[in-house]
Amino acid sequence: MQCHYCESEADIAVEKDGISVGVCKTHFREQLEELEETEWLGDLDEELDIDRTE
């Protein structure tokens, strides 16, 4: 599968409702950085109640 944003091979792919989208590591990181600027990830973290203290 090809990256949604460039010509590279996708390193990560997700599927929902029969539609698959892939991204390379570079574009995955860029998208995560953009999401970090919103409160969406923080809200998701609280919703999932992830414990990172091991």
Mean pLDDT: 86
Order of helices and strands: EEHH
Oligomer state equals single chain
Strand residue percentage = 15-25%
- Backbone shape: globular
Beginning-to-end CA distance, first to last residue: 36 Å
How many distinct helices?
A: 2
Pfam families: DUF6757 (PF20542)
Q: How do the helices and strands line up, and which of them pair or pack?
A:
Layout: E1 12-16, E2 19-23, H1 25-36, H2 40-48
InterPro entries: DUF6757
Structural features, described:
The structure is a single chain. The chain has 54 residues and is an alpha+beta fold. It has a domain at 12-45. The protein is built from two helices and two strands. The chain has a two-stranded antiparallel ribbon with strand order 1-2. The longest helix is centred in the middle third of the chain and has 12 residues, at 25-36. The N and C termini lie far apart (36 Å).
